[in-house]
UniProtKB/TrEMBL annotation, chain A:
One of its GO terms (biological process) is transmembrane transport. This is ABC transporter permease. Its main location: membrane. GO terms for cellular component: plasma membrane. It comes from Pelagibacterium lacus. The keyword Transmembrane helix applies. PROSITE patterns: ABC_TM1.
From TrEMBL, chain B:
The chain crosses the membrane at residues 6-23, 35-52, 92-114, 126-149, 155-174, 218-240, 252-273. It is a multi-pass membrane protein. The keyword Coiled coil does not apply. Keywords: Cell membrane, Membrane, Transmembrane, Transmembrane helix, Transport. Its main location: membrane. It is found in: Cell membrane. Pfam families: BPD_transp_1. PANTHER family: ABC TRANSPORTER PERMEASE PROTEIN (PTHR30151:SF41), ALKANE SULFONATE ABC TRANSPORTER-RELATED, MEMBRANE SUBUNIT (PTHR30151). InterPro entries: MetI-like (IPR000515), MetI-like_sf (IPR035906). One of its GO terms (cellular component) is plasma membrane. It comes from Pelagibacterium lacus. This is ABC transporter permease. One of its GO terms (biological process) is transmembrane transport.
């Protein structure tokens, strides 16, 4: 345990601290011109350095907010605002999270379904697989706002359009991973199933599916991050409907940099939490399947 | 049932039949076999377009929802000189390519630099992994504030988005060298740079190209999405959001088609370079001699 702590926690802490430090330096550098123009207007000369620093760190609309400003904004909008009003980040995060979750579940199911078809039918494999790969070179995120607007014109609003974008983004890693996973049993295992006179369904449930589970979790981690991005971009055109994406857009319209950074921080936290949840699920499943710890 | 639906259905069945026949065809001729491998997905793609056309016309879906491919094609042909080509120049040739080159290039240099320090490597890798899973597109509004409305801000978004996947993959690639090979280089009394150039970089190429391919899509997405946050009146992202506002759905689809083709070509070019550079890698050898 001691060795492990020495091995990873310390370097990561140092790196994170260094990033925070660099951030502060840039805060000062980027916000100085504006602060000096303020002093120029006030006619203040010979401002002591400590006074200057505290002024730089407490601007209303800084070019780059200092980390503690972002943290303060994050804290007030998470804990001090009522959770069901648009002023609260929890409110926005919940909207984004529900679209992400729905889209991710759809995407994973679709991905597994496609992978099953691809593994069991050569025609589908040959004709579908190149297009699955090509579909990801299409910058689908670019049309995310259009999908939302078009679906809104057929009275389909709210969660579903955003979830569809998340689905599109998250199905790909699952298809690729699961095709690999379903094909990972070795020929000798398949032969064994054949000597047992196992039906295709039995081969699937007793051999292919368990063999593919590690691949499933690995691709789910990629997929869930993609889902979150999809949900956030899908929220850009919906205006005041809520969600982290609309919060970003509002922040950019009104020059509320601190608000943008707080929303970004929330998005980062969501992403980390989702990936952590999937890792936890992975550990539980591995234990249930009798993996060595 | 009307003519369009029946045609679409027939084409679909026929194409399915042809594909089933083609993949069952046994032939020793390698050229024919690789031709089949190309034809089958092409038939599938064409069928998809025909079925799309047939369904849209057959059910008379309003063009505002989903225009048929033929209308989109007409729109593309009609508007290539203006506005598609200027948009393409603005978004792809300026924002994407410049941002991609700076992002991947600087990440590569940083990766080689931190590779010399195991401490930094252990610290930066988890952080880099974490950051590349973040929704980095979100920094687009901030970059627009910092670098203005023109393509520089979009290039900056692309730089940030492409930096971390490249960093993480390059560091992983540089670590891929086995101890045996390193020992061999040591017995040759090879210097750090000789080991890097002759052993470790070649071993890292597959990882680096993996990142370059991921980044090719990310870069295009970043540039287009960043244009939603403010842009001069040119650019693919601007055109898409402007056309949505006027419900010119065929224009939107035309831009998307161009973006898709550009994205696929970008990806394809990198894949070709990869094939030329890492011809020795098992995954490449396997394709040539099945």
């Amino acid at each position: 345990m001691k060795r492990w702590v020495d091995g990873r926690i310390l370097p990561i802490t140092v790196v994170v601290l260094a990033i925070v430090l660099i951030w502060y330096v840039f805060t000062v550098l980027l916000n100085t011109p504006w602060q000096q123009s303020v002093y120029g207007r006030e006619g203040a000369v010979d401002v002591p350095f400590t006074q200057f620093l505290s002024d730089v760190f407490s601007q209303q609309r800084p070019v780059l907010p200092a980390p503690h400003q972002v943290a303060a904004e994050f804290y007030t909008s998470v804990f001090n605002a009522p959770a069901h009003t648009p002023r609260s980040l929890i409110f926005h995060a919940w909207i984004t999270l529900s679209a992400t979750g729905l889209g991710f579940v759809f995407g994973t199911l679709l991905g597994i379904g496609l992978a099953v078809l691809i593994v069991h039918n050569r025609a589908i494999d040959k004709s579908l697989m190149p297009w699955v790969i090509a579909s990801q070179t299409i910058p689908i995120l670019a049309i995310a706002p259009m999908v939302v607007v078009v679906l809104a014109s057929v009275r389909l609003t709210g969660l579903i359009p955003k979830a569809l974008i998340s689905t599109y983004l998250s199905f790909f890693p699952v298809v690729v991973g699961m095709v690999k996973g379903f094909r990972s049993p070795e020929a000798i295992h398949l032969d064994l199933m054949r000597t047992y006179n196992a039906s295709p369904a039995q081969v699937f449930w007793k051999l292919r599916w368990p063999a593919a589970l590690p691949f499933l979790f690995a691709s789910m981690k990629v997929g869930v991050a993609a889902s979150l991005v999809g949900a956030i971009v899908g929220e850009l055109p919906t205006g005041a409907a809520g969600g982290l994406g609309s919060r970003l857009l509002a922040g950019s319209y009104y020059g509320q940099t601190t608000q943008i950074w707080a929303a970004l921080l929330m998005a980062a936290a969501l992403s980390a939490a989702l990936i952590f949840a999937i890792s936890a699920l992975e550990k539980l499943t591995e234990r249930a399947m009798g993996a060595r710890a | 049932m009307n003519g369009w639906l029946i045609t679409a259905l027939l084409v679909w069945l026929a194409a399915w039949g042809i594909n089933e026949f083609l993949i069952r065809a046994r032939t020793g001729n390698r050229t024919i076999r690789s031709a089949i491998n190309i034809i089958v997905p092409v038939i599938f793609g064409v069928t998809l377009l025909v079925v799309w056309e047939g369904l849209v016309r057959g059910f008379s879906v309003p063009a505002v929802l989903l225009p048929p491919p033929s209308v989109i094609w007409q729109r593309i042909v009609a508007s290539i000189p203006n506005p598609i080509w200027p948009d393409f120049q603005q978004t792809f040739l300026k924002s994407v390519l410049v941002g991609y080159a700076i992002g991947c290039g600087s990440a590569f240099v940083v990766a080689v630099a931190i590779d010399r320090s195991p401490f930094l490597k252990r610290g930066l890798l988890p952080v880099g992994n974490f950051v590349s899973a973040l929704p980095l597109v979100g920094i687009a509004p901030i970059m627009v504030m910092w670098f203005g409305f023109d393509w520089q801000s979009k290039a900056a978004v692309v730089v940030v988005m492409t930096f971390f996947p490249m960093l993480v993959n390059t560091v992983a690639g540089l670590n891929a060298t086995g101890a045996m090979e390193k020992d061999l280089m040591r017995t040759y009394a090879a210097s750090y740079w000789q080991t890097l150039m002759k052993l470790r970089l070649p071993m890292a190429w597959p990882f680096i190209f993996n990142a370059l391919k991921i980044n090719s899509t990310l870069a295009l997405i970043g540039a287009i999405v960043a244009e939603f946050f403010g842009t001069p009146v040119v650019g693919m992202g601007f055109r898409i959001s402007a056309a949505i506002g006027r419900l010119q759905v065929d224009m939107v689809w035309a831009e998307i088609a161009i973006a898709a083709v550009a994205g696929s070509l970008f990806y394809g070019v990198i894949a070709l370079i990869e094939r030329a550079v890492t011809f020795w890698h098992p995954s490449m050898r396997g394709e040539r001699a099945p």
